[in-house]
Design brief:
CATH topology of chain B: Rossmann fold
CATH architecture of chain B: 3-Layer(aba) Sandwich
Largest sheet of chain A: 6 strands, parallel
Helix content of chain A: 40-55%
Distance between the termini of chain A: 76 Å
Strand content of chain A: 5-15%
CATH class of the largest domain in chain A: Alpha Beta
CATH topology of the largest domain in chain A: Rossmann fold
Number of helices of chain A: 22
CATH superfamily of the largest domain in chain A: NagB/RpiA/CoA transferase-like
Number of domains of chain B: 1
Strand content of chain B: 15-25%
Radius of gyration of chain B: 22 Å
Oligomer: heterodimer
């Protein structure tokens, strides 16, 4: 996916003015935020389950090499082929080579955010392979040539009417207006693709070391189709997705759908191990698994390692006041919200996503709801520090802070300047004691009014009150 | 150096781990122990628990006393929902008396044009109201996937408390692990358009469980 994170501020302004999007984001809070709260309340020992989930992820990362080797050993023993990809370009190259090797004309895909990291569809199309996204949301985006704006609900920014217009235009069928009719039309369009595709491409929510299996959670059933019907199955995922045992997996599965969509469990959980067996009448003849580094090993052993615990539920973005205001596209890469504010700069470079770690009020809603207890605000704060250390902060900000440091260390000058400022601002506030336009602070007063100071500083008032109290008899 | 060696090397360097400090043994021990983590306690009648959760996921349930009651229950469901009286099933169900209940049953994997698929299950999970099926030569996954209606025959004794118990049973199977384990929790659904729940996205519109009590 093309990186546009440097346009965060401009895109945010655009999104704040988009009434359609604002309505959809409001609805998302009702569904996903309330849904999570309800599903978590059903678990009386939720804190213990959450602790266990975080511990499972942390322990696995501490022994990541050994669990990956165990996974590879077991997957290979069951007839799968495991590929290792250092970069996203390597993923694209491997998939294109497999497509050529198996004479693939058409590939059907279930939702994979890692394939979005790679911009895999573009690579396959350039290699002459037709790619069809089959998750309803991703299919709509593919028709509209747009990027997902949410990792779980990728098309949350589009209205039903927009989908109606799009389908009528692309399918050349009478325009449908009901949502069930639109879903049915997509089902009927996509069925023939499932049956005729040569290759199925999926992600993996987890890979399981003890069995060498890959696992996907879906609601639509397209994931099952993609991993069952085509003669070649390619699963693409990040190296951090490994889980040691099926028992460990059960704990994570208890939390993933609850935090993602507010469901106790998703409709389908599909665990696939190797290609079809002797006597099987369905299942792929060839099963390839691609494990992507793509910047992940840079986080290991660093102060960002906790981020690799992420199971991509999306709860952090659903609960984030910034995401709730600007939506996913403003973030400019695959992962929006607090998760993206850490993943984007760490995967594609701090200098390419300067606004993202700052696009947070550090209110810690994300940290509170994270099922694997990632301290997201702490990580964003650390990224801000790194920006400062590497001289990546805007000059205005650096000078401002230097000036403030200089005065703050000189109490007399500081007191004098604040006395002047308090009086000037009090005059500016006028009779209603509100400042509507602050010079050099337009960004702040554009959206709200600033209450004016009363005219005297705290230190002046404190001094005056001490004089009054000590002069009492 | 290959990409594999590069990635594993980067991981080892980042984790700053010395060889021979017993880490490999600890990892092996964890993989073998299958230790349970804290989880919700499923107490009381498993069947009642399964029923409550399955119904909440829009799975429907019919009860029969023994396996001979399955064909009439299937016929009743098909006619109630005005579905065709023809279906495909897993081979283990082929021997039931479908003919006298007016159901044209074929024991073969489902195809694109089949409207109703009838399967058994490996077990069912009370905690979430979920069915668990395994792939195999006689248990093709397509039969629970391609038709618009999936009917699953579940024996009450197959209901286990949670996923962890299901894995324990699975490990006892001769060709463990099977190519595919599919957990099914109600009809296929999507809420991608305007977050509005709609059934029958790609998989079945209807999931009906016939619960056999004997």
């Amino acid at each position: 996916m093309q990186l546009t994170s440097h346009q965060f501020k401009a895109r945010s302004r655009e999104k704040l003015a988009d009434a359609n999007l604002q309505g959809a984001l409001k609805k998302l809070q009702g569904n996903f935020v309330k849904g999570r709260a309800d599903r978590v309340a059903e678990l009386e020992n939720f804190p213990a389950i959450r602790d266990a989930a975080a511990a499972i992820r942390a322990r696995t990362l501490d022994h990541l090499d050994l669990y990956l080797e165990e996974f590879e050993r077991n997957a290979t023993a069951r007839g799968a082929v495991v590929h290792w990809a250092g970069t996203t370009e390597d993923v694209n190259r491997i998939v294109c080579e497999l497509a050529a090797k198996y004479d693939v004309k058409k590939a059907v895909k279930s939702k994979s955010m890692v394939s979005e990291e790679c911009a895999l569809n573009d690579a396959l199309e350039a290699a002459g392979v037709q790619v069809v996204e089959t998750d309803l949301g991703e299919y709509i985006l593919q028709l509209a040539k747009e990027a997902p704006s949410h990792i779980v609900a990728p098309v949350v920014h589009k209205s039903k009417d927009q989908v109606s217009d799009l389908f009528a235009d692309k399918h050349h069928l009478p325009r449908k207006t009901g949502i069930p009719e639109l879903c049915k039309e997509a089902r009927e369009q996509l069925r023939p693709h499932f049956v005729s595709a040569d290759m199925g491409i999926s992600g993996a929510n987890f890979i399981i070391a003890e069995t060498g299996s890959t696992l996907i959670v879906t609601n639509e059933g397209n994931g099952r189709m993609v991993t069952t019907l085509p003669r070649v199955h390619v699963a693409i995922t990040g190296i951090e997705k490994v889980v040691p045992t099926l028992e460990d997996l059960s704990t994570l599965i208890r939390l993933l759908p609850r935090h993602g969509t507010g469901q106790t469990i998703t409709n389908y959980i599909s665990v696939t191990t190797g290609p079809r067996r002797a006597g099987d009448t369905d299942g792929p003849e060839h099963f390839h698994i691609i494990l992507l580094d793509g910047g992940r090993t840079r986080l290991l052993g660093s102060d960002m390692q906790d981020m690799l615990r992420c199971i991509r539920c999306g709860a952090c973005m659903n609960h984030c006041p910034v995401y709730q205001s600007v939506g996913g596209h403003a973030y400019g890469w695959v992962y929006p919200g607090p998760m993206g504010s850490i993943l984007t700069p760490t995967y594609v470079g701090l200098e390419n996503a300067l606004d993202l770690p700052n696009a947070s009020t550090l209110c810690n809603q994300c940290g509170v709801v994270c099922p694997v207890k990632i301290p997201l605000p702490d990580l964003m704060r650390k990224l801000r520090e790194k920006q400062f250390e590497q001289g990546l902060k805007p000059k205005q900000e650096t000078w401002g802070l230097t000036l403030w440091r200089w005065t703050a260390q000189r109490p007399r000058i500081y007191a004098m300047l604040t006395q002047i400022a308090a009086r000037v601002l009090a005059v500016m506030g006028g009779s209603d004691k509100l400042i509507y336009n602050l010079p050099c602070g337009g960004g702040w007063t554009d959206g709200r009014d600033m209450p004016a100071p009363q005219g005297r500083t705290f230190r002046e008032l404190y001094k005056a009150s001490r004089i009054t109290s000590t002069s009492r008899p | 150096m290959s990409a594999r060696e590069n990635i594993l090397g980067r991981i080892r360097t980042s984790l700053r781990r010395a060889d021979g400090d017993g880490v490999a043994e600890r990892v092996r021990a964890h993989l073998g122990a299958h230790a349970l983590s804290p989880r919700p306690q499923i107490t009381g009648d498993l069947g009642a628990h399964f029923r409550e959760k399955a119904l909440a996921l829009s799975t429907s349930i019919a009860d029969v006393a023994d396996v001979h009651g399955v064909p009439s229950a299937v016929a009743a469901y098909l006619s109630l929902n005005q579905l065709p009286m023809g279906a495909v099933c897993w081979s283990a169900l082929a021997g039931l008396d479908w003919v006298s209940h007016g159901v044209v049953m074929e024991a073969r994997p489902a195809r694109e044009s089949d409207k109703v698929g009838v399967t058994e299950v490996f077990c069912a999970i009370a905690e979430t109201g979920t069915l668990m099926t395994l792939s195999g030569a006689d248990t093709p996954p397509v039969t629970s996937l391609l038709p618009e209606t999936h009917i699953a025959v579940l024996h009450a004794s197959q209901i286990v408390p949670a996923m962890e118990e299901a894995w324990q049973h699975l490990r006892e199977m001769p060709d463990y692990p099977p190519r595919a384990v599919n957990f099914i929790s109600g009809p296929s659904r999507t809420a991608d358009i305007e977050q509005t729940l709609t059934f029958g996205a790609h998989g079945p519109y209807r999931v009906h469980v016939i619960l056999v009590h004997s």
